[in-house]
Amino acid sequence: MIKQDKDNYKKELKDSISYLENLGYDNIKADIEGYESPKSYFKKSSGVEVTPDIVAEKHGRKHIFDLSLKTVKPRLLKSKWLFLNTLSQLKSYRFRLITKRGHYSFSDKTLDAIHLDNVKIIKL
Fold it and tell me: Which domains does the chain have, with CATH numbers?
């Protein structure tokens, strides 16, 4: 999810965090009040700051999660996902998308548009 949509989807982010806690993830960092914020990355050329929605660990492996919800700026979301996927491949992390009912087809179409076939989607 992009920064402009964070205020609209706070409930979905909290639901995702509780879901991950129930699955056994620990050391959860989230871009929301009450949690430590994950590391941000800054793109100098465009001035865009990229922060993963949720970063967690399970069995000693770091996982990066991003919420896949409909947005008015899908191009910015696509570039964020491409960056997070590349970062996770370089550092041997796992990159996953979390989506909710009503956003499944948006997530699939967006992933197909940027050719990210290896990214798994968690449906809540």
Answer: 3-123 (3.40.1350)
Confidence of residue 31 (pLDDT cuts 50, 70, 90): confident
Rg (CA), the chain: 13
Q: Which of 70, 36, 34, 39 is nearest to 52 (CA)?
A: 39
Q: Strand 94-99 to strand 120-123: parallel, antiparallel, or no bridges (unpaired)?
A: parallel
Predicted TM-score (pTM) of the model is 0.92
Task: For residues 82-103, give the mean pLDDT.
Answer: 94
The first and second tokens of residue 21, run together, are 């806690």
By DSSP bridging, strand 61-67 and strand 54-58 are antiparallel
Spatial CA neighbour of 61 closest among 92, 23, 35: 92
- Which amino acid is located at 52 in the chain? P
Q: What are phi and psi of 80, to 5 degrees?
A: -65, -45
